[in-house]
Structure formats: structure tokens, C-alpha cells
Amino acid sequence: MKKYVLLFVVVAFSVSIFAGFQLLNSSPNEKISSALFTIEKGQNIVQIASNLKKKGFIRSELFFISLIRLSGSARKVKSGQYNLHSGMRSTDILQKFVRGVVATVKFTIPEGFIIQQIADLLEKEGIVSPDQFIEAAKNPEILEKYKIPFNNAEGFLFPDTYIVAKDLAAEHIVDFMIERFFSNLRKISSRKYEIEEMKKMVIIASLVEKEAQLDSERPVISAVFYNRLEKGKRLESCATIQYILGKTKERLLYSDLKIESPYNTYLNGGLPPGPISNPGLGSLKAAIEPADVDYLFFVSKKDGSHYFSTTYEEHLEAIRRYNQSGKIGHQIS
User: Fold this and answer.
1) Residue 235, exposed/middle/buried by CB under 10 A (0-12, 13-18, 19+)?
2) Most buried in the list 53, 129, 218, 257, measured by CB within 10 Å?
3) Phi/psi of residue 105, each to 5°?
4) Hey, which residues does 80 pair with through a beta bridge?
5) What span, in angstroms and rounded, lies between the C-alpha atoms of 43 and 89?
6) Non-local CB neighbours of 313 within 8 Å, separated by 6+ positions
7) Distance (Å, rounded) from C-alpha 323 to C-alpha 333?
8) Domain boundaries, the chain
9) Is 300 helix (H, G, I), strand (E, B) or coil?
């Protein structure tokens, strides 16, 4: 009888322990509502457990602390923002913290955006403040890391869709976007660019991005810019005027072309001092592989396409044909 009594006690104790574990491990609230939970850098396990209890994610602080210590996870818990729901067990929450499965956010940067536009978009998505992003794009350490030959990362922030941790610092976002730029550049060109070659290529690509609407015309527009540079002609790109203005005007006036700025390619020879947009893959490829044409001029046909000319006389005729308003609108003269 003593053996049976002892066995019964052991079984009952084990069942009680198991039941207690299951109860303490279960969610205090089975309503499956999601919420963000943040673990700040430097927080200890007592603070984490206390915050979880206050927000209704666990039944017992002591139980959660014991889980962390018994599993040897005290130094494995990672800071960040996590998507939790009230139906999760304590063991599931701990596993998420240890694996660092942080909340993510998805955003898409359109081709041709400038730094300010990217910063505004990221603010709208609730990712980082515009000031933080703009400052990160000027970070000397990042610029030196990638050998960017300008005073900011304009032109190197690759337009693409990104999925990043919700609390990712602006510096890491900028770093990620620049890395994506060079990753894509390697897909279309295996050569190593000298500093001046890189500057020229990225600036040309940024001009093409803002001037071209049709992919088929990108290499041709690129060729026009290279041909004009070779012949010592001013680039006279309307896109550089739009960049100076900081906004897009449907049609530029001749008075706009007289704005004093190093970016004004109607007044200044050679390339502008830096990129005027962040070009996509098509424009980068066009800057690397321009079309084999001898065009020196182009004018918008107002349907997204352009008319290309070799002589100034032909270009003037194209202007008369396609631009009757007396305003500029994407023409090179």
C-alpha cells in the first residue's frame, strides 16, 4: 500500500506541476489582439517581465523570469520592437525575443526620388524622422565606407522595395540602401570605377532618370548628354532646373533658366556638382551603356516620348512642332 500511496503522491505532484506550468505559461487573455512591445537596449529581465505583465501578455513575472534563467536565455534576449498578441504563451514570447523576430515594416522608394522625398516618405510610414534620415545620408563614416565622392548619398540610395526592422536606425537604412545600389551596379557592370568615373556615371544616370519616361529612350538620352559633354556643349537639362526649384513645374519659364546655381546646366558648362536624383537600374545601365547615336538635342513630344535631333536647325523645327506654348518643357538646345 505504501508503494501505491507514494506513487499516487508522485503522480499527483507531477500533474500539479504540469498543470501549474500550463496555467502560468498560458495567455492571461485569449482575445487575439496584436500590439507592439519594445525591449530597450540595456533593459534587464526583471524590467522586461514587469512590462509584459503590465501590458497583459503574461500571467506571472516570476514565472517568466524563471523561464529565462532556467533556459539560459538571459543574455540571448534581443532588443527591438516585437509584434505580440494576447493569445501567445510565455514560452512562445521568450522564443521570439531570443530569436530576435522583431516587427518589420515594408516601404517602396520610387525611382527618381531625391533625399528629401525619401525622408518624407519614411516619416509618413512612421519609420524615422526626416531630419534623422537627411543627417544619416550625410554621415561621413557611411560615405567613406562606400567611397561616395559627394557630401551626401544622393544618387546612391537605390529605389526599391525594402523590408526592415520597425525600429531600425536611420544610419542602418541609409547603409542598407547604398549597399543595394552597389549590389545592383555589380549586376550590370563588373568593372571597378575610379572616383571621377563613378561621379560622372551616377550624375548622368540621375539626369536620365529625371528626363526619360520610356525605358527605350534611356540609352538615347544618356548618349545625348555624353555627346554634348564631348563637344563642350552645356547640358541644358530642364531636370537640373527642377532640382534647383525643389519642386516639379509642369512647364518651365525662360526666367527659370536664369537662376544662379552650380546645378543650372543652362548657365554652367560640364556636369552639375552632384546627382539630382536617385536613379533606378534602367538609368544606371543607360549611363554605363549609352546608345551608339550622334544626337545632340531632344525635345518632349508631350506623350512621354522625345524627338531627337543631330543638328540645331532640326531641333528648332522640332521645338516649333511640339512646343507651341512659348515655355520650355524638357528640351535641350
Assistant:
1) buried
2) 218
3) -135, 145
4) 39
5) 21
6) none
7) 13
8) 25-99, 104-188, 195-322
9) strand
Q: Report residue 318 as a C-alpha cell.
A: 522640332
Residue type, 253: L
CATH of domain 25-99: 3.30.1490.480
* Exposure of 256 in the CB half-sphere (CA atoms within 13 A): 22
Instruction: Tell me how far apart the alpha carbons of residues 247 and 252 are, in angstroms, rounded to a whole number.
Output: 11
Euclidean distance between CA atoms 264 and 260, whole angstroms: 7
Count the alpha carbons within 13 Å of 183 in the hemisphere toward its beta carbon: 10
Question: 1-37, pLDDT tens digit by residue?
Answer: 555 445 444 444 454 565 665 767 677 776 656 788 8
**How does pLDDT run across 52-110, given as a tens digit for each residue?**
999 889 999 999 999 999 999 989 998 888 888 878 899 999 998 998 888 888 999 99
111 in Cβ contact with 159 (< 8 Å):
yes
Q: What is the C-alpha separation between 157 and 176, in angstroms, rounded?
A: 9
Taking a C-beta distance cutoff of 8 angstroms, is the pair 87, 32 a contact?
yes
For 28-51, what is the HEC assignment?
A: CCCCCCEEEEEECCCCCHHHHHHH
As given in the structure block, the three cell numbers for residue 308 are: 531627337
Separation of alpha carbons 287 and 209, rounded Å: 10
Grid cell locating 43: 533593459
275-289 pLDDT, tens digit per residue, is 999 999 999 999 999
Residue 29, all three cell numbers: 487573455
Report the alpha-carbon distance of residue 55 to residue 61 in Å, rounded: 12
- Give the span between the Cα atoms of 9 and 15, in whole angstroms: 10
Q: Is the distance from CB of 158 to CB of 178 less than 8 angstroms? A: yes
> 333: helix, coil or strand?
coil
> Cβ distance 89 to 27 under 8 Å?
yes
